[in-house]
Amino acid sequence: MYQQTEHADERDMLSSSRLLIMCVALLALLLVTPRIATSQPSEELQPRFSKALALVHQAEVAGATREEITNLVVLLNKALQLNEQATRSPTFEAKRRGDLLAQVNETLGTVETEASQVEVTAARRTLTTRTQAYLSGGILAVVSTFAYVIAVRFWREYRIKRTFQMRVFRKRVEQSVHRK
Amino acid sequence: MFETIAYVAVTPRPGEQFFQLYVLGANRLLSDYYPDGDPDIRVGELVKWYVGVTDFMGTVQLVGLRLKLGNQTISPPNDLEATPSPAPLVAEFWRFIQNNETWEMPFFWQIVNGDAVGGSTRVLALQINNETYPVLGPTAVNGYNFRLIIELWTWEAQSTTLQFGWSASGERRVAWAQVWFNMTNPLPQ
Fold first, then answer.
1. A38: nearest CB among B10, B92, B157
2. Which of A123, B41, B132, B178 could form a disulfide with A62 if both were Cys (CB 3.0 to 4.6 A apart)?
3. Which chain B residue has its CA at the smallest distance from A61's CA?
4. How does DSSP classify residue A150?
5. Which helix (H) or strand (E) holds B9?
């Protein structure tokens, strides 16, 4: 009976020491893991980052200026930095982590809104620029055609005028030969 | 003819899409990679590099620098198959950069912990820019021929995945760099 109790105690001790080792290993893993995987976008936020980047790309394609894109990139990097802080925060600081992730979400929301606005503005500006360029091309073509026609007309009139202004002279060489 | 000129003026010309990756030494030159020119790094000895990436993709890109610690036998990244090195990851740094922008970061590192058992030397922890990273890395015979491999990763917007290198004109391209060093004496300075 005593031996059985002793064996049971040993088993309990073994299982509790195993549990302790597992806890320590888990704790070590949790402490190490966030440092190895640092600032890449966290998995739950990857679709948000992807969406924000896609909207920024659309704004670029629409013809946004470098300054407009720089503002968006600054916000994207801010979101990335907050995401990194959230990833690195220890698991026991769940509230802080949650707050940081909420800030990331908010910043990405701002990026999405601003990127959409920039896209609309840029598209309108690009359309205006293109219309102006093509209209200028057309106007230049018409003006240059008129200029050419007028120039040709003046040239012809000038030639006619010069022709009628011509006078006939006897060659001096011939005159000297006749004198001889 | 005028309309052609107008079209050429308002239509952006497509250029070659690529990234540039570089590693510079302590004086921002392609030299002075090791303190006093000695590639044998001791524990606690600060090594100063500068790592930079320039975006020539024509758009904003999310780029990542993945730092791996390898030895002489671990294979480096494969340029032809565009596969990364199987060396263990130590740290990674991510950033959004826009077209024609260079992201250059100081990369000041030191070995903070290492050991040598029976001629087999291991780096146990690296400190990079005042942040300590544990290394579950490979061993080197007598501490010779460790290498830090820096890989360029990008975010593929269409497939929403991280990829080693980038895709341009239907082709996969990669960029990576490595710098060799020794740690023949794992004792602190």
1. B92
2. A123
3. B59
4. H
5. helix B2-10
In chain B, which residues have their Cβ closer than 8 Å to the Cβ of A36? Answer: 89-91, 133-134
Interface of B with A in 45-64 (CB under 8 A): 59-60, 62, 64
Phi/psi at B156 (nearest 5 deg)?
-85, 110
pLDDT digits (tens, 9 = 90+) for B157-188: 777 788 999 998 888 999 999 999 999 886 66
Closest-CA residue to A112 (of A34, A36, A45, A12):
A45
- What confidence category does residue A142 fall into, taking pLDDT thresholds of 50, 70 and 90? very high
CB-based contact (8 Å) between A66 and chain B? yes
Residues of B in Cβ contact (< 8 Å) with A72: 60
pLDDT digits (tens, 9 = 90+) for A96-115: 888 999 999 999 999 999 99
3-state secondary structure of A91: coil
* Vertex A138 angle, CA A133 and A143, to 5°: 120
- Those residues whose C-beta lies under 8 Å from the C-beta of residue B184, and which sit 6 or more positions away, are B40, B121, B142, B143, B144
Interface pTM (ipTM) of the complex?
0.87
pTM, entire model = 0.76
Asked if B74 is an interface residue toward chain A (Cβ–Cβ < 8 A), one would say no
Measured between CB atoms, which of B7, B60, B134 is closest to A57?
A: B60
Q: Which two tokens stand for residue B26?
A: 């302590």
Q: A123 at the B interface (CB within 8 A)?
A: no
As a whole number, mean pLDDT of residues A44-73 equals 91
Token pair for A161: 């005028």
Pairing, β B89-97 against β B61-70: antiparallel
Q: Do A80 and B1 touch (CB under 8 A)?
A: no
Cβ neighbours for A90, distance < 8 A, ≥ 6 positions apart: A30, A31, A34
Q: Give the separation between CA A123 and CA A22, rounded to whole angstroms.
A: 59
Identify which of B10, B94, B133 has the shortest CB distance to residue A40.
B94
Residues in Cβ contact with A110 at an 8 Å cutoff, skipping those fewer than 6 apart: A75
